[in-house]
Design a protein that fits this description.
It contains 12 helices and 8 strands. It is α/β, with parallel strands linked by helices and 281 residues long. It has a single domain (8-243), classed as Alpha-Beta Complex (2-enoyl-CoA Hydratase, Chain A, domain 1), CATH 3.90.226.10. It has a 6-stranded mixed sheet with strand order 1-2-3-4-6-8, sandwiched between helices. The protein has a two-stranded parallel ribbon with strand order 5-7. α10 (245-257) packs antiparallel against α11. The longest helix has 20 residues, at 84-103. It is globular and about 60 Å long.
């Protein structure tokens, strides 16, 4: 096995190995539930960019160490107190660039979901060639509960994958969190594997892609340029929602309950200043 060359910081967040032309990118912060901090996202983005340039990489497996696939984006570590126009722009750019890291990757990607997957870790997975999940996996996109709009092209792509009814069950007020078997039946994912065989089964699939020359493509007939356009539109709507009072207040409460006092106070400050900010955005 060979490793993909990554910077020192990136290598502390993801592990990489190459076998049979398949690059495995393993998120490796299990004690933090593989949450998507800026550092984690920068690490796997770097791995995807390098893989796209490497002649040794023909396909990618994206997975995680530990019992969680990912707890999603760590908002407390990504949003800072700044001028509202700057913050709005930051959120738009941050969200758009996150999903473009998946959209722009030129090698076929198989996501191997080893446990609970939340938010952006779910929507980004649907932008890959396929998803295989451990029998322990669950899938949650709690946007309605958080008071924010869908991201990761899910406003369009989810309905194509699993029908309008199931898409609304996940994205809307019900907040449906399907198990691996339910996600398979709905059409959200394509394979389920025994937990202890997940990476072995994923490698067999990805190796088969290499041998048959599978190219980078998108599920349900979606096309790259359309998905990029949807991502750009969703990013603007998401930034608007992030700066709306209900979301800011709820995030402050949630982070305080997790004893993350500093990030909680940032959200509280943004919320308290919201009447002024609304005229400045």
């Amino acid at each position: 096995m060979n490793e993909l060359n990554l910077g020192n910081e990136a290598a502390t967040y993801v592990q990489t190995s190459i076998k049979d032309g398949v690059l495995t990118v393993l998120m490796n912060k299990p004690k933090k539930l593989n949450g998507w901090t800026m550092e984690m996202m920068d690490a796997f983005k770097e791995a995807f960019v390098n893989a796209s340039k490497s002649d040794n990489v023909k396909a990618i497996i994206f997975s995680a160490a530990g019992s969680y696939f990912s707890a999603g984006v760590n908002l407390g570590g990504t949003i800072k107190l700044m001028h509202p126009k700057d913050l709005h722009k930051l959120i738009v750019n941050h969200n758009q660039e996150l999903f473009e890291a998946f959209l722009n990757c030129t090698k076929p990607i198989l996501v191997a979901v080893n446990g609970p997957a939340i938010g952006a870790s779910v929507t980004s997975a649907t932008l890959c060639n396929g998803i295989i999940a451990s029998e322990n996996a669950t899938f949650s996109t709690p946007f309605a509960a958080l008071g924010i709009t869908p991201e990761g092209c899910s406003s369009v792509h989810f309905a194509r994958l699993m029908g309008e009814q199931n898409a609304q069950r996940m994205l809307g007020a019900e907040g449906w969190k399907p198990s691996a078997s339910e996600a398979l039946s709905a059409g959200l994912i394509q394979w389920v594997a025994p937990h202890n065989k997940l990476l072995d089964d994923a490698h067999k699939i990805a190796k088969g892609w290499v041998e048959s020359g599978v190219e980078r493509e998108f599920l349900a007939g979606s096309q790259l340029e359309e998905l990029k356009s949807v991502n750009a539109s969703e990013s603007l709507m998401l930034a608007d929602a992030f700066l709306d009072a209900p979301f800011l207040r709820e995030q402050s409460r949630f982070l305080w309950s997790k004893k993350k006092r500093g990030p909680s106070l940032i959200f509280l400050s943004i919320w308290a200043l919201r009447p002024l900010w609304g005229r400045l955005i």
